[in-house]
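lol ok so funny story. i was supposed to be doing the assay writeup but got distracted and ended up predicting the structure for this chain instead. priorities right. anyway since i did it might as well share w the group, maybe its usefull for someone
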Amino acid sequence: LAHASWTTDAALLIELRLVLWSSNRKVFTR
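and the output, tada:
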């Protein structure tokens, strides 16, 4: 269970980073 929760947290962090990166890219391309 601990490993599963860790992978879930990691996935959420990666997804959050992608969202922030894509939003930053939109601002830069604007």
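Helices lie at 2-29. The chain is about 95% helix and 0% strand.
back to the writeup now i swear
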